[in-house]
Design a protein that fits this description.
Blueprint: H1 3-12, H2 22-30, H3 34-46, E1 65-71, H4 78-86, E2 91-96, E3 103-109, H5 128-139
Antiparallel strand pairs: 1-3, 2-3
């Protein structure tokens, strides 16, 4: 990753133009060509530097809520379980941690009063710890705080 890649990552974290040619407009601000920006973003994704490039919706500003979730996934099934968790549109991102609860992900819901999706937790391996996690996903939601 060179200085231009770093400039792209830092420059686009704060927003992306809403225009007829957003890549052209973003590239202009970054001082590079539109094609270079598109190619570099693709390379950053291919290299695993970026896991995705797209909009990030602020569920709280839209009246919803976020829930940080964690579970114990057996190492030999981690990728399979991650794929099952990530298949839910409510999951914002997912990552592995060196911890007994080794899979952490953020779940977004549209309102603070709706129940968690019925499928939430259905991808967890059947263990006492994860049964407890399945129940807590459904019952430990905090209302959105407004300041």
């Amino acid at each position: 990753m060179d200085e231009i890649d770093k400039r792209i990552i830092n420059g686009l974290q704060g927003g992306f133009p809403l225009s007829e040619r957003p890549y052209r407009d973003a590239a202009r601000v970054l001082g590079i060509a539109e094609g270079d920006l598109i190619r570099r973003l693709s390379n950053l994704i291919d290299q695993g530097v970026l896991s995705r490039f797209g909009p990030m919706y602020d569920a709280e500003r839209m009246g919803g809520a976020f829930c940080l979730c964690a579970m114990a996934a057996p190492a030999e099934r981690f990728e399979e379980i991650a794929a099952r968790v990530n298949a839910h549109c409510e999951v914002g991102h997912n990552y592995e941690r060196a911890h007994a609860l080794n899979m952490w992900f953020v779940l977004a819901v549209t309102t603070t009063s709706e129940p968690m999706p019925s499928t939430c937790g259905s991808c967890l391996p059947s263990t006492a710890e994860n049964e407890s996690m399945r129940l807590s996903l459904k019952s430990r939601r905090k209302p959105v705080q407004k300041f």
